């Protein structure tokens, strides 16, 4: 079972001649089954042999992204690749048909992209310049037209004389200022400013001139001026006119206004001296505008012609030319990245790889195909080799659409060790179940179940659409299973949005009380002593005064039972791991005492809960003992007769509890002491053997060192040093402290982890109470009122009820239950056996890296 334990790995040496390195790697990357071992992880990528090729690919990808940006700017449709395997075959066939060396195709692609990119940049720059010129002409034209409308014809007439001094223009209208024009020389400032800066501009001018200036503005049509630096977005600008008294360009007010315009980056224009010049200037601007528009249209057509070439889907292709070029560059960059993991020595590349069991046949076949397809090129060699260094093999699980999401939950916490039991296998079953225990509701669970069914049935249609549901497709099976278990557990709790369902007929009926405290007082009486509600909880328990007490007690005990069972199973998995790895120290001195301790303490508590459920306490509920009291007295009052007892006279129960307590306490020193003592003894023995064999192995060490220097392998020396007894071993103090921490964590963790499973009860309680509050506040009033008013209240209440249910219970509570189920698996369950210190098998795969880049990024 490859999902129970990771696939068996083999360690191999790969030898590739440099002249055929591209062809060999191109074949191997299509296999999806090779994990390349980096020969020197500390060496930066920039110092590796093929770093220059990677940089070239990065530069070309940047240019492709700029072209893609232009295509989106001009609203050109890009056909993205939906089948990367088809594209990989096309690349392979295209390169095979060329008469040149395979790796030189990148040079052709580079020249083609550079040429087209340069042409596009030139045309885009011309477009920007033309747009800037057009904007200036439109602004100048608007200044003339709007300025004339604001100033009028009288401002073309020269003043008779210049009056120096202060003229108060505050609060005056333009007509009043025109009256003064005959005796006072007025300066004017005309320009264009962004509309969003108008208010600030006016305020500053008012403060600088102290009200000794008149200003007015008029907006330019919003669809005329474009921002060339922001994808040709429209800019709203306004023409402003400032009139102020003064007698020349050296005027103090003039200097201050010029500085203000510079700070706001305002475009200033001069107003014609007379009407004749005004008309000539206007005609000249109009002529230039027509020429600029024609040039813009021609340049735009040229740019679109370039972009159409990138948009086109060529024959034997399934995507646009731009997308094809991008994915080819991604493929080339990935190929050279993998080649950088190999060590170059002369004209040969040496590397180490991990292969799953049986994959070596595929690699040998691929190497033979290189020699067959490319005549005259030498192929690579694959040689089995013992693993180097102390690092274990990578972990690899073959997942499918169902198991992928659950395996990601495990991998997010940590990658399993090589050949360690995979928690993902059990997470597939337990994660949706624990979620369902917390989210248990027939109605809400059914809604989640319907969503899962919809995502599974219509996944192809949703994938091809632009629906937001597309992002949930990857976990559609998880949603389906979570909805099923929430629906199922809703029937167990008999809870339909806080309303019980009497599906099978209750085992209780009402009858009058013998001595009623008030008129028509009734009580619930069991119809038949042997009557049992067929499935779930009898709905009568939702109608009695002690409903909350009963349901809390039931859900709390059920949560503890589920938790103890799951954690016990986790400890059992630890023992299975110890047997598989033949780690008998862990099996004898950790697994056995830990399982014994857990069963004698919390397993005993589960036994008491279940035994109490099997006893009929009808008529003697006062004699029923409290489970919590029994567990407390087991520790604080060992040997004392139990009163009231769960069975017998209480003495046998007390004796059993005392025996279990002694066994549990005896297990603690067994967990703590033997393991560090044995490991310390083994370390001393190995160290002594290494010292005695040091002289004997000296020549072997020297020979090994020479080989390592010639091969450049650092890991071999470390592995051989440890094998020859020179490796570092832990001190006894470190081992003992580590074991003390492990023991305390297990003993105290058993208590805290068991209490942590009470979240199954707490979340279920919160869900049920929220549903009940929404029902009572939104629907119950309308149902109780009846009539027309009740119908209106019910209609309004139902709308509020629906929104509250969707927002709080179907969104927030789903996320809350999901996170708590995640916590129970990561902390409570997996901590019992899961080390999570492995590393993933990184497949060398064209398909994977191209698929990741074929998906368009969200804007």
UniProtKB/TrEMBL annotation:
| Gene Ontology terms: biological process | vacuolar acidification
Give the Pfam families listed for this entry: V_ATPase_I
**The keyword Nucleotide-binding is annotated on this UniProt entry:** no
Q: From the UniProt record, which GO molecular function terms apply?
A: ATPase binding; proton-transporting ATPase activity, rotational mechanism
Topology in the lipid bilayer is annotated as:
Multi-pass membrane protein
| TM region positions | 433-456, 468-488, 558-580, 592-614, 654-674, 795-815
List UniProt keywords, sorted A-Z. Hydrogen ion transport, Ion transport, Membrane, Transmembrane, Transmembrane helix, Transport
Localization, UniProt: Membrane
Function summary: Essential component of the vacuolar proton pump (V-ATPase), a multimeric enzyme that catalyzes the translocation of protons across the membranes. Required for assembly and activity of the V-ATPase.
Q: Which family does it belong to?
A: Belongs to the V-ATPase 116 kDa subunit family.
- List the protein's name: V-type proton ATPase subunit a
């Amino acid at each position: 079972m490859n999902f129970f334990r990771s696939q068996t790995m083999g360690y191999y040496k790969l030898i590739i001649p440099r002249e055929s390195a591209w062809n060999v790697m191109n074949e191997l990357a299509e296999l999806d089954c090779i994990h390349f071992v980096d020969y020197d992880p500390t060496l930066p990528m920039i110092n590796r042999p093929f770093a220059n090729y990677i940089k070239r690919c990065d530069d070309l990808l940047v240019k492709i992204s700029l072209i893609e940006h232009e295509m989106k700017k001009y609203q050109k449709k890009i056909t993205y690749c939906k089948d990367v395997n088809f594209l990989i075959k096309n690349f392979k066939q295209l390169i095979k048909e060329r008469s040149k060396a395979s790796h030189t195709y990148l040079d052709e692609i580079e020249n083609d992209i550079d040429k087209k990119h340069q042409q596009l940049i030139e045309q885009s720059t011309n477009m920007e310049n033309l747009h800037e010129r057009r904007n200036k002409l439109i602004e100048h034209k608007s200044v003339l037209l709007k300025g004339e409308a604001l100033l009028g014809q009288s401002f073309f007439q020269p003043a008779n004389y210049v009056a120096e001094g202060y003229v108060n223009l505050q609060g005056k209208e333009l007509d009043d200022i025109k009256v003064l024009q005959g005796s006072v020389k007025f300066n004017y400032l005309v320009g264009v400013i962004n509309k969003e800066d108008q208010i600030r501009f006016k305020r500053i001018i008012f403060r600088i001139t102290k009200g000794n200036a008149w200003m007015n503005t008029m907006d330019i049509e919003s669809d005329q001026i474009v921002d060339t630096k922001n994808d040709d977005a429209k800019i709203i600008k306004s023409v402003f006119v400032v009139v102020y008294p003064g007698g020349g360009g050296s005027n103090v007010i003039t200097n201050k206004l010029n500085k203000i315009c510079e700070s706001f980056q305002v475009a200033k224009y001069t107003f014609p001296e007379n009407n004749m010049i005004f008309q000539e200037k206007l005609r000249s601007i109009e002529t230039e505008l027509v020429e600029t528009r024609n040039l813009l249209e021609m340049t735009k057509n040229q740019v679109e012609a370039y972009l159409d070439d990138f948009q086109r889907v060529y024959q034997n292709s399934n995507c646009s030319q731009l997308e094809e070029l991008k994915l080819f560059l991604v493929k080339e960059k990935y190929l050279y990245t993998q080649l950088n993991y190999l060590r170059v020595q002369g004209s040969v590349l040496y590397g180490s790889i991990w292969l799953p069991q049986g994959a070596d046949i595929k690699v040998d076949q691929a190497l033979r195909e290189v020699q067959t397809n490319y005549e005259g090129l030498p192929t690579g060699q694959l040689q089995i080799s013992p693993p180097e260094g102390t690092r274990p093999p990578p972990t690899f699980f073959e997942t499918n659409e169902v198991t992928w999401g659950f395996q990601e939950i495990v991998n997010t916490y940590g990658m399993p060790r090589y050949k360690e039991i995979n928690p993902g296998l059990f997470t597939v079953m337990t994660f949706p179940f624990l979620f369902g225990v917390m989210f248990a509701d027939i109605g809400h669970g059914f809604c989640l179940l319907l969503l899962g069914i919809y995502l599974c049935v219509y996944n192809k249609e949703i994938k091809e659409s632009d629906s937001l549901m597309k992002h949930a497709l990857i976990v559609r099976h998880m949603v389906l299973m979570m909805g099923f278990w929430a629906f199922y557990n809703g029937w167990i709790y008999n809870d339909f949005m806080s309303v019980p369902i009497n599906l099978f007929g209750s085992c209780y009926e009402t009858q009058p009380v013998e001595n009623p405290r008030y008129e028509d007082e009734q009580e619930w009486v069991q119809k038949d002593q042997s009557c049992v509600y067929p499935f779930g909880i009898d709905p009568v328990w939702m109608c009695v005064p002690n409903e909350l007490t009963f349901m809390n007690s039931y859900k709390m005990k059920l949560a503890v039972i589920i938790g103890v069972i799951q954690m016990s199973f986790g400890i059992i998995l630890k023992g299975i791991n110890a047997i598989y790895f033949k780690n008998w120290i862990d099996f004898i001195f950790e697994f056995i005492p830990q399982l014994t301790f857990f069963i004698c303490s919390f397993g005993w508590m589960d036994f008491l809960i279940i035994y109490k459920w099997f006893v009929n306490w009808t008529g003697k509920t006062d004699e029923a003992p409290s489970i919590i009291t029994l567990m407390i007295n087991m520790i604080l009052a060992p040997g004392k007769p139990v009163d009231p007892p769960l069975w017998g006279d209480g003495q046998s129960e007390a004796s059993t509890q005392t025996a279990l307590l002694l066994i549990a306490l005896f297990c603690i020193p067994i967990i703590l002491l033997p393991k560090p003592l044995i490991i310390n003894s083994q370390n001393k023995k190995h160290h002594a053997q290494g010292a005695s064999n040091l002289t004997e192995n000296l020549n072997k060490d020297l020979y090994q060192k020479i080989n390592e220097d010639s091969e450049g392998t650092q890991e071999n020396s470390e592995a051989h040093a440890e094998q020859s007894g020179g490796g570092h071993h832990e001190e006894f103090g470190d081992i003992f402290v580590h074991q003390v921490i492990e023991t305390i964590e297990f003993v105290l963790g058993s208590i805290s982890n068991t209490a942590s499973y009470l979240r199954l009860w707490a979340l279920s309680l919160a869900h049920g109470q929220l549903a009940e509050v929404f029902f009572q506040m939104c629907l119950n009033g309308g149902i109780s009122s009846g009539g027309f008013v009740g119908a209106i209240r019910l209609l309004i209440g139902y709308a509020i009820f629906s929104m509250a249910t969707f927002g709080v219970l179907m969104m927030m509570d789903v996320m809350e239950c999901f996170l708590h189920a995640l916590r129970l698996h990561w902390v409570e369950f997996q901590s019992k056996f899961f080390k999570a210190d492995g590393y993933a098998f990184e497949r060398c795969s064209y398909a994977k890296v191209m698929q990741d880049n074929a998906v368009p990024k969200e804007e």
